[in-house]
Amino acid sequence: MIHTYQFKITLEQQLNLFARALLIWTGIICTCIFLHINLTNIGFIAGGLFLFTIDTLPTIVIHAQYWKINHNALLIVDTETEYVSYKSSIQNVKYSFQNIAVLHYYHSYERNSVHFSFGSYRYCKIIFRDGVELIITCLMITDIENTLEQLFGIKAGRHSQLLCLVN
User: Fold this and answer.
1) pLDDT value of residue 18
2) Of 37, 53, 66, 120, which sees the most CB atoms within 10 A?
3) Is the distance from CB of 63 to CB of 14 less than 8 angstroms?
4) How many CB atoms lie within 10 A of CB 136?
């Protein structure tokens, strides 16, 4: 049985999250080429700018923020000793699970089955009893909400945001 889990940002996870935005633009451009639509048409340009503004740009901003927060970071969770450690260029901490005061899970809410590319981005905030906070983003852990709850044995408070930016 595995007792030590290590998490860090991977290229595969980044591509999985960003794939929707890439697929949308690839689909639009391929459709235009296939249908011989003039890509310099003012309607196409206006529609493209609108889509970029409401979908792709927020996705890029969230992705960049998450990458900046967890870049070169390593989260180690040892379920046998019940310790969690986080190592990055900014923070280097190690705590017992007993020192976790609260676990918060933040996710984007999506309304009326409209799915935006940024809808898959989410993060958890681990707050320790001494006030130290760790931000763990979905760039590090795929199924972040369930994984951390199971490993720590703590139910996370859930919070919805239109854009799941770390605040």
Assistant:
1) 87
2) 66
3) yes
4) 25
The full 3-state SS of the chain, as one line of letters, equals CCCEEEECCCHHHHHHHHHHHHHHHHHHHHHHHHCCCCCCCHHHHHHHHHHHHHHHHHHHHHHHHHHHHHCCCEEEEECCCCEEEEECCCCEEEEEHHHEEEEEEEEECCCCCCCCHHHHCEEEEEEECCCCEEEEECCCCCCHHHHHHHHHCCCCEEEEECCCCCC
- Tell me the domains of the chain and their CATH numbers: 4-161 (2.30.29.30)
Distance CA 78, CA 55 (A): 38
pLDDT value of position 110:
65
- Whose tokens are 């996870």? That residue is 13
Per residue in 21-61, pLDDT (tens digit) is 888 888 888 887 888 777 777 887 888 889 899 889 999 99
- Both tokens of 128, joined, read 């320790």
pTM of the model: 0.87
- Label the pairing between strands 157-161 and 100-108: parallel
